[in-house]
Amino acid sequence: MTKLSKGMPNPILFRLSVWGAIAYTTLLESIRRKDLWVAAILAIVMIGAASVIGQFGVRGLEMFLKDVTLSVVNLLSVVLAILFSARQMPEEISRRTIYPLLARPVSRFDILFGKFLGALALSTVALLVFAVVGWGALFYFGLSVGEIFWQYLLLRFFSLAIICALTICLSIFLTPPATATIAILLAIGASTFSTAVKMLHGSVGTGAQKMLEAAYFLLPQLDLFDLSRKVSYGWKPISATTILILLAYGAIHSAALLTIAILRFRRQAL
């Protein structure tokens, strides 16, 4: 890790340098471990699947191919984000590399937040790899995605921030396998849960309704960040106001999850 100075005159710049150094180290470790090769291999599989479909022609399947391509991008990016995030804190503790960090003027919050930034950076790189492959496959078949595709990527980034924060929060309480399992269930099952809440809300008692409403608002609604259907059907870009509202929503949920994580981490014996 980059050597951190103990006497930086500006505490804000010092904190930023600490977070950046930890995030950068996380990226380097993942590159050495060839984690991003997983994204590359999965991207090659996507290309192979697209080429097989292309042999049968795509006439009349334009919207279907767009929807399937973006659904695959969504799924793979979410799974890799969870796998990247689930091991960050447990491995730092189990390898005992956290002690040299804490011996410097680095707090537990600095470590946790730097790991979050590193996991988010890794997840973003994987997302871009999948998105480029998906866009290239669609372009090869003569299909366009429109300007809303860039908003789709931006909102996917917002959702990955929530997923990374959720997974790191769970990793403070659970083992890495349990963390990955529960995070995948929460992230992928968010849509099913939202639909179930809407269907059950009017058919249960007042107390149960309040519990459903609390769960609905406390759990992040990741479907709000999914524009894949709108890309598939060729919608026009959504408004900047909507983007900003979703940014605020994602930032609030990410901050809340990281706050829970750091409150627990500060009391955790190392």
Question: Can you put this structure into words, describing what you see?
Answer:
With 270 residues, the protein is mainly alpha-helical. It has one domain (11-267). It is 77% helix and 0% strand. The protein contains 12 helices and no strands. Helix 2 runs parallel beside helix 6 (108-140), helix 3 (62-86) runs antiparallel to helix 6 and helix 6 (108-140) packs antiparallel against helix 7 (148-173). The longest helix has 33 residues, at 108-140. The two termini are 21 Å apart. Residues 1-5 have low confidence and may be disordered.
Number of structurally distinct domains: 1
| Shape field | globular
Distance between the termini: 21 Å
Q: Kindly provide the radius of gyration, computed on alpha-carbon positions and rounded to a whole number of angstroms.
A: 20 Å
Number of helices: 12
Tell me the series of helices and strands, N- to C-terminal: HHHHHHHHHHHH
- Percent of residues in beta strands: under 5%
- Average predicted local confidence, pLDDT: 81
SSE-based structural type: mainly alpha
Helix content: over 70%
Please give the number of β-strands.
Answer: 0
State the major sheet. Answer: none
Low-confidence stretches: 1-5
